[in-house]
Amino acid sequence: MSFRALWIVTHDKGENASVRFSRRFATVEYRAKKLGGSLYVAMPDDSTVLRHLLTELGLSDPHKPFVRLRDDCRRCPKTPVFELRVGPDQEVLWPVVVITHGSLIVACLGLVDVPQEPRPPLANVRSVSQAITFLTGLQNFLLGSGGKLDNEVLASRLAALPCVLLQVCPFGTPLDVPSIKAPTTSSVPIPAGNQKQPAWKTGFHRGRAVVNTALTETVRSMQYGDPSKQDTWDVYGTVMCKCEVEGVLPDVTVTLTLPPNGSPLQDILVHHCVTSLDSSILTASSVDNDSSSFSGPYKFPFSPPLEPFRLCGYTSQVPVPPILGSYQLKEEQKHLLVSVTLKLHESVKNSFEYCEAHLPFFNRPQMGSVDVKVSCGHVDPSKEKNLLVWVLGQKFPKSREVSMEGRISFSGPAAGPTDLICTDLTAYVKLHFKVPDTTLSGCCVDQHSVQVYSSTKPKIITSRELQSEDYLIWNSTSTAPVCQLLL
Predict the structure, then answer these.
(1) Which of 93, 188, 363, 385 has its CA 20 to 30 A from that of 253?
(2) Which of 39, 48, 54, 42 is nearest to 119 (CA)?
(3) Residue 190: band (very low, low, confident or very high) from pLDDT cuts 50, 70, 90
(4) Residue 324: strand pairing partners
(5) Which parts of 57-125 fold into alpha helices (H)?
């Protein structure tokens, strides 16, 4: 496996994007030219790569949600592997592997050592899977121990990156290690003992033992307010771990538990470091919909890597979505009459980190007058974007129900944003919320059952949260696209 080029990009919600670091490997490029022959595509400059990369990721020009080269139905996207069409004749750079984390993007162009025409299946391109592993390690290195993008940490890591790449990726060919670590890691001597340091683990931890687990459940929903259309919702969870434990191959066990009436976890996928697992855990599938599925506790014994990793992922079938909504939009001359009602389900904790309802309006002139009243929170209109942001705050009232009523005119001098689906009165409310210290399924990491076989007593840190993604409530007075949510 070798890389023709490597890029690190940062952006601010799709804007002010810049290439913070790039590296091209001349020796690999020479091999690519020899292997490609007449099909060889020369590497464009960084600005061209950045422009096409942002387009493929949907981060450029949000007012044009449809781009023919990217969204044509004849194309079958296979993320995180992309193709970039560059040059006047739309020459193709492939495979470009991209991994994103918030406003950080890491990408590389791999060298394909098999004929590209006809294009080989991704399963036969060894450099793709190895590139994903390499970029994941690079991402962890750039984010630091906190797992979140910090400008100071990023600047210091970018300054050290040329020296790091000389050690772990000489001449564009990564060494056989799963992740990039700081240069000082390799200078730590291997501890004495009978256990042999595995090739995939380039160092080990010294100091106080800490096991940090973070469980995040994400809920998606499509609600129509129409008896002829069935509302849909789904929930999926991930458990992230960061284990700082002494020893060459330390043993850690993390246990997930459910409340007595909780729905069993399904479609469970685990990290390759998990050493053993009950077969009934892996066979529970949402497709089978078997009520006799294994209901826990779910024990995951593993020997952790040094970097943060995703211990497992799962789905869960919950009986109701956390927030039920109703949206009605009617047109009266040049005005729109807006009515929104949101009801927080009684089983959900009434304590938000944030909760907002976004009401976009497409294919209309810019907003003019906005006269709306809300029973809770406040409304921030963005007339340039034809968007109402209803900030609900951190709590619903005791009734757990909030409403918005109002009238909006569209008399601005310029045209607002466009959308191919939201024509006429087809519109939606999109909810953005996060609820700390709760999950819809009731799943949690049992802090007292976390077992660490170490010479020192570890510090156990656990957290959980519920967040929304693609949580849409469609206008019930007009047509709406009906789709089945798929994980």
Answers:
(1) 188
(2) 39
(3) very low
(4) 343
(5) 68-71
CB-based burial, 186-211: b 16+ in 10 Å, e otherwise: eeeeeeeeeeeeeeebbbbbeeebeb
Report d(CA 273, CA 302) in Å as an integer.
Answer: 5
Looking at residue 281, its amino acid is I
Give the pLDDT confidence score for residue 246 in this predicted structure.
Answer: 79
Query: What number of H helices and E strands is found in the chain?
Result: 6, 22
**71: which 2 tokens?**
């969204």
First to last CA, the chain: 31
Classify residue 395 as exposed, middle or buried by CB count within 10 Å of its CB (0-12, 13-18, 19+): middle
Distances (CA, A) of 266 to 278, 305, 309, 320, 378: 13, 25, 20, 17, 39
Q: From the CB of residue 243, how many other CB atoms can be counted at a distance below 10 Å?
A: 27
Residue 16 near residue 50 (C-beta atoms within 8 A): no
Per DSSP bridges, beta strands 459-474 and 210-223 are parallel
Q: How far does Cα 178 stand from its chain's mean position?
A: 21
Q: Are 370 and 388 in contact (CB under 8 A)?
A: yes
Q: Is 295 helix (H, G, I), strand (E, B) or coil?
A: coil
Residue with tokens 């994903």: 132
Which residue's entry shows tokens 């409304």? Answer: 379
Distance, CA of 191 to CA of 246 (rounded, Å): 10
Tokens of 375: 């029973």
- Contact predicate 7/24, CB 8 Å: no
β-pair type (378-382, 428-436): unpaired
Q: Is 447 helix (H, G, I), strand (E, B) or coil?
A: helix
- pLDDT above 90: residue 353: yes
Per-residue model confidence (pLDDT) at position 173: 86
Q: Which two tokens stand for residue 368?
A: 């003019």
Q: Which residue has the tokens 């779910």?
A: 298
Contact 439, 217 (CB under 8 A): yes
Please tell me the predicted confidence (pLDDT) of residue 400.
95
Which residues lie closer than 8 Å to 37 by C-beta, 6 or more apart? none
Instruction: Give the contacts of 368 (CB within 8 A, at least 6 positions apart).
Output: 383, 408, 409, 410, 411, 412
